[in-house]
């Protein structure tokens, strides 16, 4: 593999952005969810109100679309509503003033130009996704090339930027997921570039001679600082990425803040000095730790400072935390994200029906009755379960940081780089499967980083394909109108078919006749085809007119995809551990 194969021509990237932007522009008239109203109201809040009222305003109780993202995202909304272009559009009359007015939910219908304006902000924000995809795919391509590993940088880049999940979520449903994931990819790319290892040869003889020159590489430290800073900024934009913090903390604490020193002594034998290498010692670098802490805190805490400088800083912080962590919303979202808790609630409903209809002895019934339906876990209990789910990431992040320092001349940057990406995937998976009130879109935080590994091995390619067809299929019910049926199916099938076909041709196989698709995948495709027919054809004709079983299609989709994603989650943990323990 040549060096050129890891590079992406900027002209091709720019052309891809323009072509995809044209496609996204054509989607402007399609369905938009209430998330459009949410972000429109946030524009109005940051346009009209002083900063001290941003997290308090609810239009006198007239709206539920209150600001509930961290301060850096609020600043982003303020930039969109107060920049020169927006003001020029308002003065010219093309953008009506009502678009940025504080409106109650009962009277907030936007104009066509308001919709175009707001949709275009999402299209332009995808520049960040393209930058992150370019940076991450080329960075991991260099690592794989240097270690004679297979990789197709262009395919990886295209699979990220054309992902139908992001197109449906951001450019139909309406959100800014692409921009957030672009920032995450930039952080991952910095961490990959920071996997070059440091070795300080601390040499001194027994006679107290001066230490020899210390060989060290500073560039990897700067890249790791960049990765930490970018991730901290991402947390200040969207707090739900907090579940990746343990991976960053344990990996950087060990890999960045520790230095391996090897003492080399010289002994005189027959009037000549002979070199003797001593044991390697791990030394904690307070200098590196302080610099890392300062950089991280500045990027994370910085956006909060303007709010803490208001007349009531404690009140600002308390109100902000209430908005960011609304635990009163319940264990699951209305759409039942396809995770462990969807399976738990489904089992609870099945047990409730069985308990009512199956004859059970009275003594057993009285014993079981307090637990039917199953008790709903509290937010605190869910947090503890999630923390336990992240423990493998912490353990192996520390171990990889240790081994990469001790065996730097053998490991090079391959294992730390691969592990870190797998760690992001597993941590994101754990957050999706175990988190409290998780939205279905959160699976994209696992799918997008996993794309970076899709061309590296048969196992990673299979995991990517399975997670993609299950996770994206679970998003299809978000576009519930018949007008978007052909669009969502075409996006899903076209992208998935292209991904499978191209990966089959570029991913190396252990056996000559081996394929990425297995019996498990064919069974899953059959089940999803039946589900799609039931959801889009049978249920609307048979059940919907009478109002019966309205939630059945959503529940069936969540349960079926949840079972498959549970398997993928387990598979991702195995691949992460195997990668971390390679020698």
**Class by helix and strand content?**
mainly alpha
Dominant shape: globular
Q: What is the tally of beta strands?
A: 2
Element-by-element helix/strand order? HHHHHHHHHHEEHHHHHHHHHHHHHH
Show unreliable segments: 198-217
Number of helices: 24
- The rounded distance between the terminal residues' Cα atoms is 23 Å
Largest sheet: 2 strands, antiparallel
Q: What Rg do the Cα atoms give?
A: 27 Å
The helix content is 55-70%
Beta-strand portion reads: under 5%
User: Overall pLDDT, averaged?
Assistant: 87
Order of strands in the sheet with most strands: 1-2
Care to give the gist of this entry?
The chain is mainly α and 583 residues long. The chain contains 24 helices and two strands.
Could you describe the 3D structure shown?
This protein is mainly alpha-helical and 583 residues long. It is built from 24 helices and two strands. Strands 1-2 form a two-stranded antiparallel sheet. Strand 1 (258-269) and strand 2 (272-284) form a beta hairpin.
Keywords:
583 residues; mainly alpha; two-stranded antiparallel sheet; 24 helices; globular
Layout of helices and strands, plus pairs?
Blueprint (H helix, E strand, L loop, with lengths): L9 H17 L7 H15 L22 H12 L1 H9 L19 H35 L6 H9 L2 H11 L2 H17 L25 H19 L7 H11 L2 E12 L2 E13 L1 H16 L3 H4 L4 H12 L15 H18 L4 H7 L10 H11 L1 H16 L1 H4 L2 H21 L9 H8 L6 H16 L11 H22 L12 H24 L9 H29 L3
Helix pairs in contact: 1-5, 2-3, 3-9, 5-6, 5-8, 8-9, 8-19, 8-20, 9-11, 10-17, 14-24, 16-19, 17-19, 17-24, 19-20, 19-24, 20-21, 21-22, 21-24, 23-24
